[in-house]
Amino acid sequence: METAMRQLCQQEDGLRLCTVTAAVAVLVSAYAVWFLVLTRRLSGPRMWPIVGSLPGVIANRWRIHDWIAENLRSTGEAATYQTCVLPLPFVARRQGLVTVTCNPRNLEHVLRTRFDNYPKGPMWQSAFHDLLGQGIFNSDGDTWLLQRKTAALEFTTRTLRQAMARWANRSIKTRLWRILGDHCGVAGAGVDLQDLLLRLTFDNICGLTFGKDPETLSPDLPDNPFANAFDAATEATLQRFLFPGVFWRLKKALGVGSERSLKRSLEVVDHYMTEAIAARRQTPSDDLLSRFMKKGDFPADVLQWIALNFVLAGRDTSSVALSWFFWTVMQRPDVEHKVLREIATVLRETRGDDTERWTEEPLDFDELERLVYLKAALAETLRLYPSVPQDSKYAVADDVLPDGTRVPAGSAITYSIYSVGRMEGIWGKDCMEFRPERWLSAQGDRFEPAKDAYRFVAFNGGPRTCLGKDLAYLQMKSIASAVLLRHRLELVPGHKVQQKMSLTLFMKNGLRVHVKPRNLHSYITGGESALLQNAPDDTLPPVLDAAAAAAAAAAA
């Protein structure tokens, strides 16, 4: 009897195992067919079951922007593809789907025509909420509009003049020139120019935003708790985008890894900002924070979010663009020569032929406004190396892009600003060539923006176009002219210039340079050509893409 019962149980167990095995086989087969159909409908990089295109993203994380550009280039004139980061039934066609584009017509559609249908979205806002809250770069609707209207009053011509005199030029004269002078002619590891630029723009934007100068650009280059904590908080926040939201939320609940670092960093940031806000409540000034205080009775946490959003935007973008500009100039003596010749032409008219007077003070507002070639060179830098290389939006409702791509509600759309400037179909066959002249009038005496605004979105587009665009150009021209007037820069031999996976296009290893004195006498005697004697035109590198960057660094 027991033997019969045992045999019956074994038969039942075997039947269950067969049933489960058959069910699994059916599910796997069904999934395989479904996955095959999905992959045939999408045009992006290779996808894998369950994990989608994430393996490609991870494998190319240190060259992510070039990888995306290559994928977009492979689509031909469409300049758009769709991929899936979570290929699971009922999820893949919405939350897991990502549309990637650099097509100017699609960009105009998303950023202007259907602006209301493409907000930041819940994933972006939840990831950045701890750091940026409901600040201007992490909000939509009425909250965003109120902050933008209030902040717009801070970017008039009058306030730009004041900003240059009070913050930028003072920092250049009393700090940047002194530090570069201390390193001038000194052999060794050189100085990290990207770090100096980050410190300078950080001090400036803190002064403009809440009237407090953290003095990170001091001769001894001190560690600043607020600046360090702000950097660490930004890095930890960006890590939230590497994996599905449930992972970082679990880490936050457990207080481990990057979430633990984020919490500690935010405590330092909160303490610093609490003191800055309290000081401004007692003694209001003409800075951005004071303007918001006068506008309404904002709680302290809201004021902190507002201030931090502007600090994030104003520090990284200008310093990153300047780093790539100086790196380019070091490889292109012809561009450097033209920039200096233009500056010299202006200063001879405003300050005379005594070159010592040229470097007594940084250029003022009116002098900077006349530097059209320098502005063109900066615009060309931003075309190839935009400070914010990509951005993402969330589709509220089903939509169809101008090129026919269907975008389902709940899915994400990423527009690659980095790729826009590197597509032949958008900028022509010389798209990879660094050529400032493309931004000048036929006579070369006037800066001409791109006729199609969505071919150049380094400052975003539509209603969210960067409020600080004019300030950014002004600050970059001021710093670039001040550095080049006094010094020649040379890349430290063996220093490798690489892009960093970040919200902005940082150089992973910084920009280490040797600082040499500049001889301006040739611009008075008419011997400017001597500046190019070591770099004849036929040896000047015309292309500055990623491969050229790596080769140039290796050759150095």
From TrEMBL:
Topology class, membrane: Single-pass membrane protein
One GO cellular component term noted in the UniProt record for this chain: membrane
Transmembrane segments: 20-38
The protein's required cofactors: heme
Keyword Transmembrane assigned: yes
UniProt keywords, alphabetically: Heme, Iron, Membrane, Metal-binding, Monooxygenase, Oxidoreductase, Transmembrane, Transmembrane helix
Superkingdom of source: Eukaryota
One GO BP annotation of this record: lipid metabolic process
CDD domains linked: CYP86A
Compartment(s) of residence: Membrane
Any Pfam family matching the protein: p450
Broad class of the protein's primary localization: membrane
Top-level taxonomy: Eukaryota, Viridiplantae, Streptophyta, Embryophyta, Tracheophyta
Name of the protein in its database record: Cytochrome P450 86A1
Protein family per UniProt: Belongs to the cytochrome P450 family.
Binding site for heme: C466
Keyword Transferase: no
Molecular functions (GO terms): heme binding; iron ion binding; monooxygenase activity; oxidoreductase activity, acting on paired donors, with incorporation or reduction of molecular oxygen
